[in-house]
Amino acid sequence: MEPVTRRSFLVTGSVGAAGAATAFGTGWALSAANDNEAALSQDEIDDLNGPLVVQLTNAAAGELEVLVGEREVTFTDKALAARLLRAAKS
Amino acid sequence: MSSHREAPSILKDPLADNTDTYAFVTPNNTVTIVTNYVPVQAPAGGPNFYEFGDDVTYQINIDNNGDGKADVTYQFRFENKITNPNTFLYNTGPIDSLTSANWNRRQTYSVTRITRQGASLLAKGLACPPCNVGPRSTPNYSGLADEAIYTMPRGERVFAGQRADAFFVDLGSVFDLGTLRPFQNLHLIPTAAADGRDSLARANVHTIAIEIPIPRATQRDDVPRDPMKQSATIGVWGAAYRQKATLRDRSGRASFAGPWMQVSRLGNPLFNEVIVPMARKDEWNAVRPHQDSSFAKFVAQPELAKLLPVLYPGVFPNLKALTKDRADLLAVLLTGIPAGLIPGFQNFTGRTQADMLRLNLAIPPSATPNRLGLLGGDLAGFPNGRRLTDDVVTIELRAVAGATYPLVDPTFTPDDAVSAVEDGTFNNPGRQLLDRFPYMGLPYSGYDVP
Asked: Given 3-state DSSP classes, what are the helix, strand and coil percentages for chain A, each rounded to the nearest 5?
């Protein structure tokens, strides 16, 4: 039995890139020009009451893992992966 | 040690380090399970005395259908509180109750029971006792400890807090090239024979103990009466979990994100310590018992069985000649002992190879416990569960040396030396084990044991 709150949420396909990018905070210089997702609502922002960590698990395939609360979400977004890598080099 | 600092990663994380797990049948149709953490505590270690991790999830896991997966889990989570932010002291006066205003750094915890039907919060805000500081700070320690025993609505009793380590072992000897002090004169590098020395004789640990009504642990919600039924046996292990990511801010605070990852576990004593090669010990702590088949080859051909004839030339000739896979150890440690090998006994849980402490709940407690458990003819002792007094180091040394191989091959004769193999540290009266829940003895005080 896993700890009760542990849930593996395996999400295939794309999850809102704007949400992941926004959660990094203002210190990240991601290109706004590529941010074509809808703006976050205040409720969505308020829901985030702890750190959100993104791990690029496979750069070539664009596989990312988001850790938030007691969950992990994995998804594929090659464009976001590329933006993260390039931001890391800036 | 049983599992104190037994792997490269967990030795750096003592708050999550599961040192020992015990499980034994107790009066009134209950089973008591004890899991210990925070190893080798020097009792005087203040002012920041020992505690559980408020960033660790601790679990007692019970498999009641033999698949090596938990069917019933008791989960413990801790919270810290600082009462007085203006002092560096653990306490600013005598702590005479669990609500004493003099006690500055305290812990409470919650207990959640998890089954396939869901999770149920059994209790929250339960207080741990303070550490045993000394006669001025904790003048009535036994009273404080008793105050921290709680009975929950469905009948479970719990305790979480500091205790004297019940485990005993001669570490200084055994890790000096496998020396067994009672006959180190026969070692490849001989020294004079001497008595064993218990390396943990004055060390404390942190204990999570729970007494469970047996129907709350079994597959059929019953009290097993027939020891020969497979459903009479449960598999037990303790485990600790940390969240996947840790982040630190510039003020020194840590925050966490992600799912809980297993960082420590313990079913049978010494499994990770002396069976699993060092290069795979961290992996063993991370995987679940039902995944243990990949470690079975280390049980079938244990390194220690090959070392003994080398370290003690001429002492273990029959063991040296035994090259077959050790079906006896595979049964004892990974599947349980099937029916037909020991009259009136089995604790077989099925074909799934999983390191769990297997306890046949239909075997009543022994009126005259033998420290050698099954090897001593006592069906209520290790490896049928594990009691605090079972001499598991000696039992496992003898088993590895060949004592249990006749169970699967009656033509095999153990070497004469096997019955003399001892750890030599049995029965330290300082531990003052209790004859009642939570059974672990009161912790050594820092004032008395600097």
From this structure: 30, 25, 45
Residues 6+ apart with CB under 8 A from B328: B399, B404, B405, B407, B408
Has residue A14 been placed in a domain? yes
Residue type, A59: A
- Answer whether residue A17 is part of any domain: yes
How many beta-carbon pairs below 8 A join chains A and B? 60
Asked whether residue B21 falls in the same domain as residue B124, the answer is yes
Task: Give the one of A6, A51, A53 whose C-beta lies nearest to B260's C-beta.
Answer: A6
Question: At A22, which helix (H) or strand (E)?
Answer: helix A17-23
**pLDDT of residue A32 exceeding 60:** no
Q: Are B197 and B259 part of one and the same domain?
A: yes
Total count of domains within chain B: 2
For chain B, positions 103-132, list CB contacts with chain A under 8 A: 112, 114-115, 119
Count of domains in chain A? 1
Same domain membership, residue B50 and residue B106? yes
Integer-rounded Cα radius of gyration of chain B = 22
What's the confidence (pLDDT) of residue A37? 62
Q: Which residues of A touch B71 (CB under 8 A)?
A: 1
- The single residue listed with the structure tokens 């193999």 is B421
Strands A7-10 and A71-76: parallel
Residue A2 lies in a domain: no
Residue A19: is its pLDDT beyond 60?
Answer: no
Cβ–Cβ of A51/B256 closer than 8 Å?
Answer: yes
Contact at CB, A53 and B73, closer than 8 angstroms: no
Q: Structure tokens of B306?
A: 């090959």
A35-57 confidence digits (pLDDT tens) = 556 789 999 888 888 999 999 99
Q: Are residues B323 and B402 both part of a single domain?
A: yes
Q: Give CA–CA dist A79/A71, Å, rounded.
A: 23
Residue B260 sits in the same domain as residue B312: no
Q: Kindly report the pTM of this predicted structure.
A: 0.92
Instruction: Pick the closest to residue B16 from B49, B64, B54 (CA basis).
Output: B54
B68 contacts: CB under 8 Å, gap ≥ 6: B235, B288, B289, B290, B291, B292, B352, B353, B354, B356
**Does A4 reach chain B within 8 Å, measured CB to CB?**
yes
Q: From B235, B211, B233, select the one nearest B220 (Cα to Cα).
A: B233
Q: In which residue ranges of chain B is pLDDT below 70?
A: 1, 427-429
Supply the range of the domain harboring residue B396: 297-420
The answer to whether ipTM exceeds 0.90 is no
Look at residue A28 in the predicted model and tell me its pLDDT: 39
Do B271 and B320 sit in the same domain of this protein?
no
